[in-house]
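User: Can you predict the 3D structure for this chain?
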Amino acid sequence: MTSPALSPLARVLACTGFAEDWYRWCDAKRDWAAEATGTYEDDSLLTASGGFAALTVGEFMRAYRAAGAKVSRGSTGRRSFTVEVAEGPTVCGLAVRLGRGLNSQECRLAVLADGERQGEPEMLHALALAIRRSQGEPDPNPPYPRPIIGSRSQLEVVSRGIVDALGQVARGWAS
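Assistant: Here is the predicted structure, written as structure tokens:
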């Protein structure tokens, strides 16, 4: 069976280790505090019922800003915001929509070069799966996970990693 051709965006992300990182960021069982640079007094968001306390959109936005991105509020009713990372004339714009009652992140990435959008926006979870498939790796279970933030240290690590990946895309877009 032949894998479908990767989109230009997926080809650039494939060179960054993004797919492996994406599935790691979705692993709720990791020791995120060991990977975080900050320390958080109220790190765990686990509630007595076994779910996670929902963070505010503002807390997500602060984490992405701390990671070095430009962040602007989207729709307040939809729990969304936009993350931008630029390198010269290339801008990676990530629309982030948070799940209701969860700290899940649905992320749609678009690249602009010299003000022109390069292809259609693509979902990060779909890009990660396409890259894995192109490398002959089996589909993970579930195949399309989203990071569900269970601690403030996980939010720090994930936002820092996503901002880094966007920067690599912006730098590598022209090459």
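Residues 152-172 form the longest helix (21 residues). The longest strand covers residues 90-98.
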